[in-house]
Amino acid sequence: MRIMIVEDKIALNNSLKIILQKQGYAVDQAFDGEEALNMIDNQYYDGIILDLTLPKIDGLEVLEKLRAQKNNTSILVLTARNETKEVVKGLKQGADDYLSKPFEVEELLARLEGLIKRTHQMKTKVFVLDNLSLDLEQKLVKRDNKMISLTATEYQILYYLFLNQGKVVSKQQLLTHVWQNEIDVFERIVDTYICFLRKKIDKNFIDQPKLIQTVKGLGYKLDIVK
């Protein structure tokens, strides 16, 4: 799961990052609304923690822009206790929940987890491309109605490629999403696991279209070559 923290208070932002990483989340940080929108435009997130009072572009405008773009990522708004009117505006503009500062860490984690679960339940439970499918509930991968056994890492790579189906995914994006920028993990490991995955998804189905494409110098994408 990947989370974006949008909070201009550096200490709070950094503290939240550490807390979320300890819970197993991959975390990106933005310190103003403009930076957040640019990052969200280029990365899939399972949830966004958004402060309303931000430099450059405030949280309400960030909310408005994201929902206007049909971005349905779960958004947990952080507010000061005296910002009742802003909370109402935020909820009307598409925030999924809010939390007043100061807050308990346990409550923030519970609220965030609940939002993500509800959002995922509303989304598709099965990804499909041609005759390849990935069932999120049962964690099953099939092609041409044949079961494909994947390791946990291969599954996470395929899941991320499906999330960005038809779009180029860089090696750095895969490192961040799958390995969460672990120390001593380099881009060549992405190439290695793509080879493993390609063998199971494509090479074992020689009469079928190739679905894992290499985009030279940029990365990989899940798509059918026409």
Q: What do these coordinates show?
A:
By secondary structure, this protein is an alpha/beta fold. The chain folds into 2 domains: 2-122, 3-Layer(aba) Sandwich (Rossmann fold), CATH 3.40.50.2300; 126-222, Orthogonal Bundle (Arc Repressor Mutant, subunit A), CATH 1.10.10.10. Helix content is 42%, strand content 22%. The protein has helices at residues 10-22, 33-41, 59-68, 84-92, 105-122, 152-163, 171-178, 187-203, and strands at residues 2-6, 26-30, 47-51, 74-80, 97-101, 126-129, 132-135, 140-143, 146-148, 212-215, 219-222. The protein has a 5-stranded parallel beta sheet with strand order 2-1-3-4-5, sandwiched between helices. Strand 6 and strand 7 form a beta hairpin. Helix 2 (33-41) packs parallel to helix 3 and helix 6 (152-163) packs across helix 8. The longest helix is centred in the middle third of the chain and has 18 residues, at 105-122. The chain is elongated. It starts with a strand and ends with a strand. The mean pLDDT is 88.
Summarize the structure.
By secondary structure, the chain is α/β, with parallel strands linked by helices.
